[in-house]
Amino acid sequence: MRIDSPEHKERDWLFLAIALLCGLLLRMDVIIASQYVIDADEAIVGLMAKHILEGQQMPVFYYGQHYMGSLEAVLASWSFMIFGVNSVALKLVPLFFSLIFIIQCYILAKEIWNRQAARISAILAAIGPAALVVWSAKARGGFIEILVIGALAMLFSVRWLKLKDPRSIAIVPIGLLIGTGWWVNNQIVYFVPPIAFAVFSKCIYLEDAYFFDKIKKFLSIFILGVLSFIAGSIPFWVYNLGHDFASFGMFNAASLHEAFDHMKGLFSTSIPILLGAKPFWAETEYFSGATLVMYCVYGVMALFLLGCRFSSIARLFKLEVDSQNPVELLILLIISCASIFALSSFGWLVQAPRYLLPMYVAIFPLLGITLSCMQQRVQVVPTLLFVFVLVINVFSSYPGRRAIPGEPFVFKGERVSRDHQELIRWLDGKGIRWVRTNYWIGYKLAFETKERIRFVVFQDPLQARIPSYEEEGMRFGLDRIPFLLTPKQAEIVKQGLERLGISFEQVQVSGYVVLYNLKRPYNDLRQVEVGMHASSTENTERAGQAIDGDLQTRWPSAKPQSKGMSFQVLFDEPRTIRAIAYCLGEWAHDFPRGLEIYAINPDGNEMLVLSKEDYAAIGYLAYSHTACKDDSMLYLKPVLAKGFRFVETGEHPILDWSIAELRFYE
């Protein structure tokens, strides 16, 4: 079935060089057009690499996670050592692996079929769909690296299958690769079913071997495979032995209903994205009918391949794989990717199928094999199909413009700014070294300034991937840290600050609003510690625990939050109150879903001092805080009151309303 000839061999390196050049130019065009911009998740890999370069302890996994090994960060630290700490040096790592992947597609298709299939496979991998091109330069924790590791494991498996009587020890490189992949990115699991199937098939169909010899062979291969897998994934196991096997917490299966939805999304959205009919995070097509046309073209090729390989595919049901031309290994890989994705909890990511990138390991060689088979029967059709696929791939990267992904969303449709240079100059000019800002803005800013400017996480997503930032920021003092916000965020935060009585200055820079020079109105507050009595409409016998000075106790409503619940504190004598602190302690989840506060005047009348609208703004401002801190203080214009009444204006179907401690200040 092969068409190897000396003259073809002479051109192999030249063809690969051309394919690599095409792949490099396409990827560099996208990278340069994006101005080498990285997002926060890439910045975290960069920060990991910077810390490794500085001699800090090497992390086992991506910061803040128990999965996605640090291989990419380690390699990025080497790049930083040569080129300095910058986004270009960071992107060189995935870019390098993406070029290696092109070579692997060539070798894999050639090993399974022939040189013509290899060339088609390589050129389609080089000039791939936008999804592959974009992720070829994203340092997001091993997504492109796992394609290289998986493709290498598949290549070794194909060569192992071709041996008439393979030695058991020959399985070790495959086990080591899968083990390394298990540490780097758990998507390596997609490659396990097809490889395991092929190994089992080879063992039971060994020629000139008795049944017990076959069993013995399989057991020896299985044991060596498991041991080499463990050896390759040593960092994973050492970490988990010391952390109660935390990594396994991510392995959650989808329900039957969810799996069905995932499978529908796979065919309606994910596969069209992977094949260039739709962009990431979009339901719209690049052109009307793109998905239908794509399925028709790929469907024709799939049916042709099915016809050509029908007998070999049928033998799969007898657990037999064609050991000399194991095309079915690639088909099994696609089935494995689709099935595991749909059955996993990650299957909801149908609009951003980065967890399906390993499909490309099978897609490009299969395209090459199919078109090569066609070429032996007809001349024009395979050429037209090849050109069509190539055009779709190119068009997906240039649909009227370059398919550069947008920056992450921060709040109500507002995105991270692409260029932070103006912001950085302003912050440096003011000597500002800490900001409170969104995850997507903060980590990007920290990397761009080489951690000269750091941040405390503000609002969703609340995950602090570098805990030392939060700890040092708290020690620095939250009340001293400026806010770095999108314009719509700033509207809410300004309302909250104003209602809290905190003054500030503001400036617009790089598309953001910076609120800085925060000042509190009083520095001479004195806490009221005696002469208070508490009562409530619910669970009043425990009301006193909200004013007992102990953050470890609380008043709970003892029933789900509902509108109209109230909590009241009366003083022995009227006092001029200038501030109130509402502390949640360990019960942050029991915060009131809506709240109004009334001051009770000496004559018994009530005056509204905090509206539910103001409370919503303050709640947004203090969302990330769970205990009683300075910035939980509500500053008031001095008000003479004999008490205060707190009224719940929201509701929750399950959670109590809790108060760990109320503090009043004169």
Automatic annotation (TrEMBL):
<dbReference type="GO" id="GO:0005886">
    <property type="term" value="C:plasma membrane"/>
</dbReference>
<keyword id="KW-1133">Transmembrane helix</keyword>
<feature type="transmembrane region" description="Helical">
    <location>
        <begin position="120"/>
        <end position="137"/>
    </location>
</feature>
<feature type="transmembrane region" description="Helical">
    <location>
        <begin position="329"/>
        <end position="349"/>
    </location>
</feature>
<keyword id="KW-0472">Membrane</keyword>
<keyword id="KW-1003">Cell membrane</keyword>
<feature type="transmembrane region" description="Helical">
    <location>
        <begin position="355"/>
        <end position="373"/>
    </location>
</feature>
<feature type="transmembrane region" description="Helical">
    <location>
        <begin position="168"/>
        <end position="184"/>
    </location>
</feature>
<keyword id="KW-0328">Glycosyltransferase</keyword>
<keyword id="KW-0812">Transmembrane</keyword>
<feature type="transmembrane region" description="Helical">
    <location>
        <begin position="12"/>
        <end position="38"/>
    </location>
</feature>
<feature type="transmembrane region" description="Helical">
    <location>
        <begin position="190"/>
        <end position="206"/>
    </location>
</feature>
<feature type="transmembrane region" description="Helical">
    <location>
        <begin position="88"/>
        <end position="108"/>
    </location>
</feature>
<feature type="transmembrane region" description="Helical">
    <location>
        <begin position="286"/>
        <end position="308"/>
    </location>
</feature>
<dbReference type="InterPro" id="IPR008979">
    <property type="entry name" value="Galactose-bd-like_sf"/>
</dbReference>
<dbReference type="GO" id="GO:0016763">
    <property type="term" value="F:pentosyltransferase activity"/>
</dbReference>
<dbReference type="GO" id="GO:0009103">
    <property type="term" value="P:lipopolysaccharide biosynthetic process"/>
</dbReference>
<dbReference type="InterPro" id="IPR050297">
    <property type="entry name" value="LipidA_mod_glycosyltrf_83"/>
</dbReference>
<feature type="transmembrane region" description="Helical">
    <location>
        <begin position="380"/>
        <end position="398"/>
    </location>
</feature>
<feature type="transmembrane region" description="Helical">
    <location>
        <begin position="218"/>
        <end position="239"/>
    </location>
</feature>
<protein>
    <recommendedName>
        <fullName>Glycosyltransferase RgtA/B/C/D-like domain-containing protein</fullName>
    </recommendedName>
</protein>
<keyword id="KW-0808">Transferase</keyword>
<feature type="transmembrane region" description="Helical">
    <location>
        <begin position="143"/>
        <end position="161"/>
    </location>
</feature>
